[in-house]
Design goal:
- It comes from Oleoguttula mirabilis.
- This is BTB domain-containing protein.
- The protein folds into two domains: 14-166, 2-Layer Sandwich (Potassium Channel Kv1.1, Chain A); 233-345, no CATH class.
- Helices cover 51% and strands 7% of the residues.
- It is built from 15 helices and six strands.
- It has helices spanning 30-36, 38-43, 103-120, 132-148, 152-166, 168-177, 179-189, 192-203, 207-212, 214-219, 223-245, 257-272, 288-298, 305-314, 323-345, and strands spanning 14-17, 25-28, 57-59, 66-75, 82-86, 94-95.
- Strands 1, 2, 3, 4, 5 and 6 form a six-stranded mixed beta sheet that branches.
- A hairpin with a 6-residue loop joins strand 3 and strand 4.
- Helix 3 crosses helix 4, helix 6 crosses helix 7 (179-189) and helix 13 packs across helix 15.
- The protein is rod-shaped and about 100 Å long.
């Protein structure tokens, strides 16, 4: 179980100075650090130290002098990027001091180190509760520090729990608004639910948005995964459109069924061709075609009654005496189309109850657990 206070280990054999302030000096245990971090394990190994511990120093007083390791958090000059180094190591990097001009930037890094060292002793990190953007910055800093020392496994659960408890709704909203940046965020912290949510939203975007994301997907080493998902997504849309066109052969012999189906197929051709909706993904509102058909089926096609009757009249048929029959046939065509469309209208996102406009992309495509980029690595 996580504790809330940072451990003070009087019997520790590792001293870590995070700044020149004595309050930022911590004495910890080498076995605990080595257990959770391959970096510390290598740094304190006999092989690394030449077998004679010449790089260690002695502290503890006359009654308890013992060998130990001593590190300092040093920063690249002019930056907030810090890394632990052996005390007295020859380097141009500098420690943080009280009058540091880069104090704000470096304090965030120092705080991340405190959280990391605390997590080694099962101390829950105290992450920000202010704005989501501020929380993201601190979380990314902590994840970056944990990655340096190869101990993300002890930090990632804390980060995920914090996001779920305090920022779930905001994170899911951001996945819909800016899926590319949230994919990058999720990859950095190895958050399954954020990655999957962002992926569902990105795969279902228009061609312009998806194509613009390629550079970032390449950078994250997930371009192959997303291009594969995108191909599956488009193929599924085309299959639905093909099946709707094929309905023309289902209603032969029924009075006015042919006319009703022809009218529906003409509507499909116009929407896919002239308007660029549907599987062409040419516009952000491409999904309006499918959602309109679904809504019209629920309405029994009443919103199209005037256009349908005009179509019948153009064919040279008086629509007045046959209106009810034609509308009944058209309603049935819409019901069949609605059944065909149900798989792509499924909402696989975690925001299922959120209000979404008719112009929002489709959200049926998901990423499986085994497809996450950090699985089996």
């Amino acid at each position: 179980m996580a504790t809330t206070g940072f451990p003070r280990c009087s019997d520790g054999d590792v001293k870590i100075h995070l700044s020149s302030d004595p309050k930022d000096t911590f004495v910890l245990h080498s076995f605990q650090l080595s257990l959770h971090s391959s970096w510390f394990k290598a740094s304190m190994s006999e092989r690394w130290n030449g077998g004679d511990f010449t790089n260690t120093s002695v502290f503890g007083g006359r009654d308890g002098e013992k060998e130990h390791w001593e590190y300092e958090l040093r920063f690249e000059k002019g930056t907030g990027d810090g890394m632990l180094m052996r005390k007295r190591a020859s380097t141009d990097m500098e420690m943080m001091v009280g009058q540091d001009e880069l104090i704000d930037m470096r304090v965030e890094c120092l705080t991340a180190y405190k959280h990391l060292l605390g997590a080694v002793y099962h101390v829950k990190p105290r992450l920000p509760h202010g704005s989501f953007e501020k929380a993201k910055s601190s979380i990314l800093q902590l994840a970056s520090v944990a990655a340096i020392y190869d101990c993300g496994n002890i930090i990632e659960p804390h980060i995920d729990n914090h996001l779920s408890a305090h920022w779930r709704d905001q994170a899911l909203s951001m996945c819909a608004e800016d899926p590319v940046s949230m994919l990058s965020f999720a990859t950095s912290i190895k958050s399954e639910w954020i990655f999957m949510e962002a992926a569902t939203n990105l795969v279902g975007t228009s061609s312009a948005i998806f194509d613009a994301a390629q550079a970032e997907l390449q950078k994250l080493h997930v371009a192959d995964l997303f291009n594969k998902k995108r191909a599956e997504f488009v193929e599924t849309l085309r299959k639905c459109e093909y099946d709707m066109f094929c309905m023309q052969s289902e209603f032969r012999g029924e009075p006015f069924a042919h006319e009703a189906t022809d009218f529906f197929c003409q509507y499909l051709r116009d929407s896919l061709g002239m308007q660029g909706l549907g599987s062409r993904l040419a516009h952000p509102e491409y999904a309006r075609l499918y959602k309109t058909i679904n809504a019209s089926a629920i309405d029994n096609g009443n919103s199209y009654s005037r256009d349908l009757m005009h179509y019948i009249a153009v064919l040279g048929i008086d629509p007045v005496p046959i209106t009810d029959v034609v509308m009944s046939r058209f309603a049935y065509v819409l019901q069949r189309a609605r059944v065909i469309l149900q798989p792509i209208l499924k909402d696989a996102s975690r925001r299922r109850n959120a209000q979404q406009s008719q112009d929002h992309g489709l959200l049926f495509m998901t990423v499986a657990d085994e497809e996450l980029p950090w699985v089996n690595k």
